[in-house]
Amino acid sequence: MKIVKIIARSSTILSVLLMVLAAAQLLVLPTAQSQATPAYALGHAPTFVGSASEFLLSGPTTVTPSLVAQSASIAPSASALTSGHRHNRMKPRAGTTSAAPAVVSVPPTVSCPGHSCDAVSTSAGGATTQPVGLNAYNDLSTFGFDSEPADQGLCAGNGYVMEVNNGGELQIFAATTLSPGTYITLDNLMGLTALQWSSGGDPSCLYDYDNGGHWFVTEIVSKSSEANAGPFTGCFAGVLDTCLEGIAVSVTNNPTGAYNVYFFDPNTVNSDPGKGYLLNDFGKIGNTKDALLFFYDEFNQNSATYPTCPAYGCNSFNGAQEFAFDKSALEQGLATSSPSFNVAYENMGLDPSLYPIPANPPFQPTAASCFSGAFAGAVCWYAVIPAQSTDATQYDNRYGGSGFMLGGIDYFGLGDNRIGTFYWTGLSYLSSSGCSACNGIKFGEQVLTNLETYLDEGASCLASGGGTCGLGQQKTGPIPLGDNCGLFGAQPPTTVSCPENGIATNGDYFTQVSYARHQIWGALPTLITQTYTSPPSNEIHVGAAYWVVGTSTFDSGGTFTLTGQGYVTAMHEDMEFPAIAGGGASAVMTFTLSGPDYYPSTAYGKFTATSNGLSPTIIHVADLGMAPEDGFTEYYGYPPTSATTPRWGDYSWAIYDPVSGTAFFATNYIQSPACSNFVSNPTCGGTRGPLANWGTSVNFVTP
């Protein structure tokens, strides 16, 4: 978002049999047109079902964006040395309350070299790479200020690849060559300038092959103009009724054409604490045959309305919010008032059927609830990410149309060995006229237990120190901003140089989830102890834990099963923000690789649903980082806080395109080497911003 997050094995035969049975079941599903009630209704009634006009402003507005050549840019303005922070928060913590436990669990351990302790190869491993995606200079030249973090979204389909970025930018590549083409600001795409509104970041995008093919782009929108400091004088300043979510849907399957734009208002959704000042943080989208799934974490930005703890909402966080919009209505561009345009909504913070979360010693010492008990207001479901399904032939259409989500459970900073799996059923009933069959829509969850342990609090100290520390190390190198931070606005002004810090991981939660081949794929960061025997040593690094959750048993009996799990960790190195593309013969996991031997680089590995780690156990570097991260959040004294709170892109992205048979992936890395004349030329010839040097890459590989 627009300010920094410092505020914050079954056998093959059985698998085939289950798929055949599931396919056969599709033939007997009740349809929304018949308005039949499902024979087997899983879960419970959601918080709300009804007209989409309850949450969407009237519309849509049709916008045909102006197309700009990717290489074109405007000169930086006089305000170029102003640091802009994009806003997403750390996950809420029970550890912020006096009643929370103080003991931290021990990270999981892997033996090196060996399975789940992977060798690093500087070979791209057959990947096609585009090393020059968006970068900090694009932000500077477009908006006149530097920003961190560089959250990145990616989607692909119909011969195109789209990259969206936290700076409020979008660019489109040719899928076969990754040659850069069109560049569009999200202000332009969503028609915000004419409304005197502004882009707020946390973008997502998705290509849906269904119904002829359509592109979805979402982001936070603020009811304050870009010309007047954008969201910093509106939504992110906590001004009443200024936070929205923009939802742009292409009219055709061409991403450079017209879009129908809707605006979602989080302050009309419920009466949670802080109504009017609610922020739709960390928004993510997924899809099913029938629905666009939309999630955000709800934060109250008005401290005067916080209840006294313990109470729901007393720590500013109100829990995960889940929505399912009628996808066909969005793709047709129907008016929000259309009787066929409906939505289902689940307030996960207040739903008593999702609590109490059972105790899980030593990870979770007591049952917990978001709205009652000692940890009320802190122990709430967060970052419950909907799965994206890229293949229209692989949607899960059981129980009237199903959709899935994953969420972590480590509220206490003790680690955990469970994840939450969530589902919608009956989504086909969203298209019933006047939502007359929407009583068939249900929401539910199942906690999977005794899984691989994960632990990462994301605190701003190197993970090698253990405890709650969660920063990845990076190779030592030139840091021109750090060496001259006093000359570039760091406070106090007598500070001439600043020491380098690490690469942020932000904590152990999912940032992307995919669904393919009757499997839900998700990964999150975790500290991992690497144990070496020659010579004997132990090293703590940041790695990834991942899970593959099977849905064939959900289709047949209503329960999820674990298909596979594993760790991915680079020998002697760190990795940040894993993301998985499922759907091919093997899955692809991408992440940023950093460590004592690597500047932040784009890397990936391959694995299968049952390989329990990368197969082969090799991490490939697709785009080699050229310098250390040298952005303002690395250093002491830059506003809005005086402490160092290093930031990195809050999510990578990986997506499988079923038509081309390739997996596209994108992460943040450092595109360009440091220059020797930084003080006189702080953009280093247009390769960085004065206060930030992040960049992105876009890549693809055949799974």
Structural classification: mainly beta
The rough form would be described as: globular
Would you tell me the overall average pLDDT?
88
Beta-strand residue percentage: 25-35%
What's the main sheet like? 9 strands, mixed
**Compute the gyration radius: what is it?**
23 Å
Which percent bin holds the helix content? under 10%
Descriptive terms for the model:
7% helix, 703 residues, single chain, 35% strand, mainly beta, five-stranded antiparallel β-sheet, nine-stranded mixed β-sheet, disordered N terminus
Give structural notes:
This protein is 7% helix and 35% strand. The protein has 703 residues and is mainly β. The two termini are 31 Å apart. It contains 7 helices and 37 strands. The chain has one domain (12-701). Strands 5, 21, 22, 23, 24, 27, 28, 29 and 30 form a 9-stranded mixed beta sheet that branches. The chain has a 5-stranded antiparallel beta sheet with strand order 1-20-19-18-17. A hairpin with a 5-residue loop joins strand 11 (169-174) and strand 12. It is globular.
Give a quick summary of the entry.
This protein is mainly beta and 703 residues long. It contains seven helices and 37 strands. 7% of the residues lie in helices and 35% in strands.
Chart the SSEs and their pairings.
Blueprint: H1 12-25, E1 48-51, E2 61-63, E3 68-69, E4 83-85, E5 109-112, E6 119-121, E7 128-130, H2 136-143, E8 146-148, E9 152-157, E10 160-165, E11 169-174, E12 180-185, H3 186-189, H4 192-195, E13 198-208, E14 214-222, E15 243-250, E16 259-264, E17 278-287, E18 291-300, E19 317-326, H5 327-332, E20 342-347, E21 385-388, E22 403-408, E23 419-425, E24 442-448, E25 459-462, E26 469-471, H6 480-483, E27 513-516, E28 519-533, E29 536-550, H7 552-557, E30 561-568, E31 574-581, E32 587-595, E33 598-607, E34 618-623, E35 653-657, E36 662-669, E37 695-701
Parallel strand pairs: 4-8, 5-28, 6-34, 21-27, 25-26
Antiparallel strand pairs: 1-20, 2-16, 3-12, 7-37, 9-10, 10-11, 11-12, 13-14, 14-15, 15-16, 17-18, 18-19, 19-20, 21-22, 22-23, 23-24, 27-28, 28-29, 29-30, 31-32, 32-33, 33-34, 35-36, 36-37
